[in-house]
């Protein structure tokens, strides 16, 4: 379908959350990661809006979703989960299928922890829960190093070093992603990165709640830290495995046609698992 969404705003805890939606059927909500902007999901929303009510939003303090006070604060994962709840409720639903990519996957898992009854199914795409990695100490110290680079040499230096892990973005023939506004990157490094480097939702409780969860890794990311975390999440959540999907860390945006069948397959598997069937 052509991309022609309905746009709206809902205020939650002092922030005007800008969201948009298209299609009919069960709600499939796409949650942005560290770049904060929902427009990266426009292509996949158009592709899936023939069978779902597809929706996304700009996260708090990102792109159009400005806080009323004008003063940005440190990332608060439970608050971001409440923002997700506000969008779901504003759309007129009491449950949603969630797709969260990168730190959006972490926030989707936090939502599942805090509001398990509102989760139909959940897909976490390369959620970087680095404290679960076998080499967590090494990766954590690298993250702390990046914070020091940001504080002493500035955003461009930190982003450039971090960007070395974004494998596959320069592969031949791969379209470029649509960049977020510059202020999103500043907010990420100033207010989100310091929290995300050590944060992991309580996956054990999510498992106890019986939430239907699936995890993905992108084939072009090879052994980047965020491509290795899904395997560790799967162990704790008791999942049968990790789905390897086309593209790089934002493959859903630029290799949408190849990505969509994998997402639909996982959603079907999660529905069977939720119903007690085989996968």
From TrEMBL:
InterPro entries: AB_hydrolase_1, AB_hydrolase_fold, AB_hydrolase_sf. Residues 26-148 form the AB hydrolase-1 domain. GO terms for cellular component: membrane. It holds the Pfam family Abhydrolase_1. PANTHER family: HYDROLASE, PUTATIVE (AFU_ORTHOLOGUE AFUA_2G14860)-RELATED, MONOACYLGLYCEROL LIPASE. This is AB hydrolase-1 domain-containing protein. It comes from Staphylotrichum longicolle. The lineage of its organism: Eukaryota, Fungi, Dikarya, Ascomycota, Pezizomycotina.
